[in-house]
Amino acid sequence: MNDKSSIVEAFLFSEGGPIRKSRLAQLAEVSAEELEGILDTLSARLTGGLSLVRTETEAALVISKDAGEKVKDAQKKELGAEIGDAGLEVLAIVLYRGPSTRAKIDYIRGVNTSSTVRNLLARGLLERAGNPLDGREYIYRPTTELLAHLGVSEGKELPEFEKLSKELATFENQQDTFGSEKGDGL
User: Fold this and answer.
1) String of b and e for 20-54 (b: at least 16 CB within 10 Å)?
2) What pTM value is reported for the model?
3) Predicted local confidence at residue 185, as pLDDT
Protein backbone atom coordinates (compact mmCIF):
# COMPACT_ATOMS: atom_id res chain seq x y z
CA MET A 1 0.00 0.00 0.00
CA ASN A 2 1.54 3.23 -1.11
CA ASP A 3 -1.43 5.44 -0.24
CA LYS A 4 -0.69 6.58 3.32
CA SER A 5 -4.26 7.74 3.92
CA SER A 6 -5.45 4.18 3.25
CA ILE A 7 -2.94 2.85 5.76
CA VAL A 8 -4.04 5.38 8.39
CA GLU A 9 -7.68 4.55 7.62
CA ALA A 10 -6.95 0.84 8.16
CA PHE A 11 -5.33 1.53 11.55
CA LEU A 12 -8.26 3.73 12.60
CA PHE A 13 -10.72 1.04 11.53
CA SER A 14 -8.86 -1.77 13.29
CA GLU A 15 -8.76 0.23 16.52
CA GLY A 16 -12.53 0.54 16.57
CA GLY A 17 -12.42 3.76 18.58
CA PRO A 18 -10.25 6.81 19.25
CA ILE A 19 -6.50 6.37 18.93
CA ARG A 20 -3.85 8.80 20.08
CA LYS A 21 -2.33 10.67 17.15
CA SER A 22 1.17 9.99 18.44
CA ARG A 23 0.45 6.24 18.35
CA LEU A 24 -1.18 6.49 14.93
CA ALA A 25 1.85 8.32 13.53
CA GLN A 26 4.11 5.65 15.00
CA LEU A 27 2.03 2.83 13.49
CA ALA A 28 1.89 4.49 10.07
CA GLU A 29 5.60 5.37 10.31
CA VAL A 30 5.08 9.06 9.60
CA SER A 31 5.85 12.29 11.44
CA ALA A 32 3.21 14.15 13.46
CA GLU A 33 3.13 16.91 10.82
CA GLU A 34 2.78 14.42 7.98
CA LEU A 35 -0.03 12.68 9.87
CA GLU A 36 -2.08 15.89 9.99
CA GLY A 37 -1.89 16.17 6.19
CA ILE A 38 -2.82 12.52 5.81
CA LEU A 39 -5.81 13.00 8.12
CA ASP A 40 -6.89 16.02 6.03
CA THR A 41 -6.71 13.85 2.88
CA LEU A 42 -8.60 11.02 4.55
CA SER A 43 -11.30 13.35 5.86
CA ALA A 44 -11.87 14.78 2.37
CA ARG A 45 -11.98 11.28 0.85
CA LEU A 46 -14.56 9.89 3.29
CA THR A 47 -18.10 10.39 2.05
CA GLY A 48 -21.37 8.78 2.95
CA GLY A 49 -21.26 6.33 5.82
CA LEU A 50 -18.08 7.26 7.69
CA SER A 51 -16.50 10.45 8.96
CA LEU A 52 -13.20 11.30 10.60
CA VAL A 53 -13.36 12.95 14.00
CA ARG A 54 -10.25 14.36 15.60
CA THR A 55 -9.14 16.38 18.55
CA GLU A 56 -5.72 17.82 19.27
CA THR A 57 -4.55 14.44 20.59
CA GLU A 58 -6.81 11.74 19.08
CA ALA A 59 -8.51 10.62 15.87
CA ALA A 60 -11.32 8.15 15.19
CA LEU A 61 -13.52 6.83 12.41
CA VAL A 62 -17.20 7.29 13.26
CA ILE A 63 -20.55 6.81 11.59
CA SER A 64 -21.44 9.93 9.64
CA LYS A 65 -24.37 12.13 10.56
CA ASP A 66 -26.14 11.10 7.33
CA ALA A 67 -25.98 7.36 8.13
CA GLY A 68 -26.39 7.77 11.89
CA GLU A 69 -30.20 7.57 12.05
CA LYS A 70 -30.37 4.41 9.93
CA VAL A 71 -27.70 2.73 12.06
CA LYS A 72 -29.43 3.85 15.28
CA ASP A 73 -32.71 2.35 14.13
CA ALA A 74 -31.06 -0.96 13.25
CA GLN A 75 -29.29 -1.06 16.62
CA LYS A 76 -32.55 -0.36 18.45
CA LYS A 77 -34.13 -3.35 16.74
CA GLU A 78 -31.13 -5.57 17.53
CA LEU A 79 -30.77 -4.41 21.14
CA GLY A 80 -34.50 -4.62 21.76
CA ALA A 81 -34.42 -8.38 21.22
CA GLU A 82 -33.46 -10.97 23.84
CA ILE A 83 -29.76 -11.86 23.98
CA GLY A 84 -30.70 -15.49 23.40
CA ASP A 85 -28.89 -18.70 24.21
CA ALA A 86 -25.72 -17.68 22.36
CA GLY A 87 -25.47 -14.48 24.42
CA LEU A 88 -26.04 -16.38 27.66
CA GLU A 89 -23.37 -18.92 26.72
CA VAL A 90 -20.80 -16.21 25.95
CA LEU A 91 -21.60 -14.42 29.22
CA ALA A 92 -21.27 -17.70 31.14
CA ILE A 93 -17.85 -18.35 29.58
CA VAL A 94 -16.57 -14.87 30.43
CA LEU A 95 -18.07 -14.92 33.92
CA TYR A 96 -16.90 -18.39 34.93
CA ARG A 97 -13.65 -18.63 32.93
CA GLY A 98 -12.55 -15.05 33.42
CA PRO A 99 -11.26 -12.59 30.83
CA SER A 100 -11.18 -14.38 27.48
CA THR A 101 -10.19 -13.68 23.90
CA ARG A 102 -12.82 -14.05 21.23
CA ALA A 103 -10.80 -16.91 19.76
CA LYS A 104 -11.01 -18.78 23.09
CA ILE A 105 -14.75 -18.08 23.36
CA ASP A 106 -15.22 -19.32 19.78
CA TYR A 107 -13.17 -22.43 20.57
CA ILE A 108 -15.17 -23.28 23.68
CA ARG A 109 -18.54 -22.71 21.97
CA GLY A 110 -17.44 -24.30 18.70
CA VAL A 111 -18.87 -21.49 16.58
CA ASN A 112 -18.03 -17.94 15.55
CA THR A 113 -19.27 -15.50 18.19
CA SER A 114 -18.34 -12.16 16.64
CA SER A 115 -21.92 -10.87 16.28
CA THR A 116 -22.88 -12.15 19.74
CA VAL A 117 -19.86 -10.47 21.34
CA ARG A 118 -20.58 -7.24 19.44
CA ASN A 119 -24.19 -7.34 20.69
CA LEU A 120 -23.07 -7.89 24.31
CA LEU A 121 -20.56 -5.02 24.00
CA ALA A 122 -23.27 -2.72 22.63
CA ARG A 123 -25.56 -3.64 25.52
CA GLY A 124 -22.83 -2.81 28.05
CA LEU A 125 -22.61 -6.39 29.36
CA LEU A 126 -19.03 -7.00 28.20
CA GLU A 127 -16.06 -4.69 27.95
CA ARG A 128 -13.10 -5.00 25.63
CA ALA A 129 -9.48 -4.35 26.55
CA GLY A 130 -6.15 -4.92 24.86
CA ASN A 131 -4.62 -8.32 25.46
CA PRO A 132 -1.36 -7.83 27.37
CA LEU A 133 -0.07 -11.17 26.01
CA ASP A 134 -0.85 -10.44 22.35
CA GLY A 135 -1.35 -6.92 21.05
CA ARG A 136 -3.19 -8.23 17.98
CA GLU A 137 -6.29 -9.27 19.90
CA TYR A 138 -8.62 -8.16 22.67
CA ILE A 139 -9.83 -9.74 25.85
CA TYR A 140 -13.44 -9.55 26.94
CA ARG A 141 -14.62 -9.36 30.53
CA PRO A 142 -17.88 -8.64 32.31
CA THR A 143 -18.76 -5.03 33.05
CA THR A 144 -19.47 -3.76 36.53
CA GLU A 145 -23.05 -3.14 35.33
CA LEU A 146 -23.44 -6.85 34.53
CA LEU A 147 -22.06 -7.89 37.91
CA ALA A 148 -24.34 -5.39 39.65
CA HIS A 149 -27.34 -6.68 37.68
CA LEU A 150 -26.45 -10.22 38.82
CA GLY A 151 -26.18 -8.97 42.40
CA VAL A 152 -22.50 -9.81 42.90
CA SER A 153 -19.48 -7.63 43.45
CA GLU A 154 -17.08 -10.07 41.78
CA GLY A 155 -17.35 -13.20 39.67
CA LYS A 156 -16.34 -15.52 42.49
CA GLU A 157 -19.67 -14.77 44.19
CA LEU A 158 -21.65 -16.34 41.33
CA PRO A 159 -23.59 -19.53 42.08
CA GLU A 160 -21.42 -22.66 41.97
CA PHE A 161 -18.46 -20.60 40.77
CA GLU A 162 -15.76 -23.02 41.95
CA LYS A 163 -17.48 -26.09 40.52
CA LEU A 164 -18.30 -24.57 37.14
CA SER A 165 -14.90 -22.89 36.78
CA LYS A 166 -13.18 -26.22 37.41
CA GLU A 167 -15.46 -28.03 34.96
CA LEU A 168 -14.74 -25.42 32.30
CA ALA A 169 -10.99 -25.67 32.93
CA THR A 170 -11.19 -29.47 32.73
CA PHE A 171 -13.09 -29.22 29.44
CA GLU A 172 -10.46 -26.86 28.01
CA ASN A 173 -7.60 -29.10 29.15
CA GLN A 174 -9.24 -32.19 27.65
CA GLN A 175 -9.81 -30.37 24.37
CA ASP A 176 -6.21 -29.14 24.33
CA THR A 177 -4.92 -32.66 24.99
CA PHE A 178 -7.19 -34.17 22.37
CA GLY A 179 -6.19 -31.51 19.86
CA SER A 180 -2.46 -32.08 20.41
CA GLU A 181 -2.81 -35.83 20.06
CA LYS A 182 -4.42 -35.29 16.68
CA GLY A 183 -1.53 -33.02 15.79
CA ASP A 184 -3.74 -30.11 14.77
CA GLY A 185 -2.33 -27.80 17.47
CA LEU A 186 -5.68 -26.81 18.99
Assistant:
1) ebeebbebbebeeeebeebbebbeeebeeebbbeb
2) 0.55
3) 35
